[in-house]
Amino acid sequence: MTLAYVGLGSNLEEPTRQVEHALAALARLPATILRARSRLYRSPPWGLVDQPEFVNAVAEIDTLLPAPALMQELLGVERAAGRDRSGPRWGPRVLDLDLLLYAGQTSSEPQLQLPHPRMHERAFVLLPLAELAPALEIPGQGPISRLISRLDAAGCRAIEGS
Q: CA within 20 to 30 Å of 145's CA: 26, 133, 137, 153, which one?
């Protein structure tokens, strides 16, 4: 089994429900076990700021799927939720699933960049990821605790009871 981390986000069509359904879908992926999940977080939009707040989380999975096959499965979960990728980059979305880390591997393929290229800049990724793996080192970036200390994380807040 290979350890991987998946970032989840939504800001349309009941975002909390979308993220919860996506977490359940991750648990049903072939040859994959959902090991842990973070709490849900509310966060301001990133990139295009004139849109609703996001609900975000991170999932820790073990999988036998190779990284490209896992990425295809994640895209399938997005499509099943109604994700339309024709909108603006960083725009509103029903569901966004990002393969953040895959066993410490690196990849610069256009369809699969590992680790996720901007994760070290995003509190809505690092805070829930740190819940699951507080001592984690992001390849090429350093310890997660140091990366979080460099960010303004004030707008990213855990949702109570999640």
A: 26
83 is catalytic: yes
Q: Is 93 a catalytic residue?
A: yes
Determine the CATH number of domain 2-158. 3.30.70.560
Cα–Cα distance between 79 and 51 in angstroms, integer? 21
Concerning whether 122 is annotated as a catalytic residue, the answer is no
Query: How far is it, in rounded angstroms, from Cα 127 to Cα 152?
Result: 11
Return the structure tokens found at 155.
């707008």
pTM for this prediction: 0.96
Q: Quick: pLDDT tens for 124-148.
A: 999 999 999 999 999 999 999 999 9
The rounded Cα 18 to chain-centroid distance in angstroms is: 13
Q: Tell me phi and psi for residue 133, to 5 degrees.
A: -145, 75
